[in-house]
Amino acid sequence: MSIHEATRAGVPAHPLARGRSLFRDLDRPADVFAHLGPNWFASVMGTGIVATAAATLPVQWPGLHGFATGVWVLSALWLITVTSAEVVHRTRHRDAALGHARDPVMVQFYGAPPMALLTVGAGALLLGPGLIGAHAAITIDAVLWLLGTITGLASSLAVPYLMFTRLQAAPDAAFGGWLMPVVPPMVSAATGALLVPHLPAGQLRLTLVLACYAMFGLSLIASMVVITQLWRRLVRYSVGTAAMVPTLWIVVGPLGQSITAANLLGEVAHLALPAPYSTAFAAFGVVYGVPVWGFAALWAGLAIALTVRAGRHQLPFGLTWWSFTFPVGTCVTGTSDLALHTGADAFRWAAVALYLALVAAWTVVSVRTARGAWRGRLFLPPPQVTAALPAPR
């Protein structure tokens, strides 16, 4: 029984427990590892994207690069911390870890660890050379890209397989988290483009470019299937529980990331492919990106309205709030690329506005996460959320 449970039950808490501030919501400090899930890696993703988005922003101001580098270092250290904690969790609490694969909600977040690896790796290449040297930065990015790509492809195959064969989903079960296992290949496509110039000309470089485009298609089509199901669920069954509303923001993640991937790959296509294919892929970045940016703006508007609506009633804090960060960050990078390739001031200032919103969201969510982790509340078993938003009258 936790301290708060004991208090509610009328059982006096132990004096030492009452005086303990760190992990005071837990029976013992070791319980921090008992219920860790892959969703914790979303905090690495959300922190890393703040750094990488700043590195590609079309408007640079004094101190931005230093800020981005500091945030990248923080994300790298946090990746090491969360990974270490996950190892302890799997070693000491194997049954709980296996239970995540049987949970139709938690299993979706197995897409988060690959994207965390890919995001930190991209930050190493974009921001690391001045801090650790170019060779070390490229090496770190290459290693993390390989690990993230392999595990990301595994999640995009294994999680849908489990959903098709073992996990049963209710008719109204679709939520933004269903995108998590299929988005990592899109992140691999975008971050893989950064590695293309560092490979020797020839078959290896060509293979990487073609593989990135194949992963782009894999993730894009799978994401469109999921988004269609989510739209259908929202229309037929309304928004659902307030706690799940932040996951609606995940939808803008594959949209923004696909714009980023299309443009970054278009920039390097000429290094591996001859004309007219390289020229076509370069044009594809803008031809594809602008219409998809429009749909991303539509969905962001809907997500804002639904989030405000949920906040008027009750929007409980949880790790799902990290959905306010990484997806918005991908829109920043995608908008920045469109600004670069079109020369449009509208995209340039939209990228700046989106980045400021990203930093604000990251600050709020980081502070709330640190507070919840300090108390230990975020390490408790996830509650069974059943309360839905009030139906319109």
Describe the protein.
With 393 residues, this protein is mainly alpha-helical. It contains 14 helices and no strands. Helix 8 (134-165) packs antiparallel against helix 9, helix 10 packs antiparallel against helix 11 (252-268) and helix 11 (252-268) packs parallel to helix 13 (326-342). The chain is globular and about 60 Å long. Residues 1-19 and 385-393 have low confidence and may be disordered.
Proportion in helices: 55-70%
Strand content bin: under 5%
DSSP summary: helix tally: 14
Largest sheet: none
- Mean pLDDT figure: 91
Using only C-alpha atoms, the radius of gyration works out to 21 Å
The computed structural class is: mainly alpha
Order of helix and strand elements from N to C terminus: HHHHHHHHHHHHHH
**Runs with pLDDT <50, length 5+?**
1-19, 385-393
In a nutshell, what does this entry contain?
The protein is built from 14 helices and no strands. The chain has 393 residues and is mainly α.
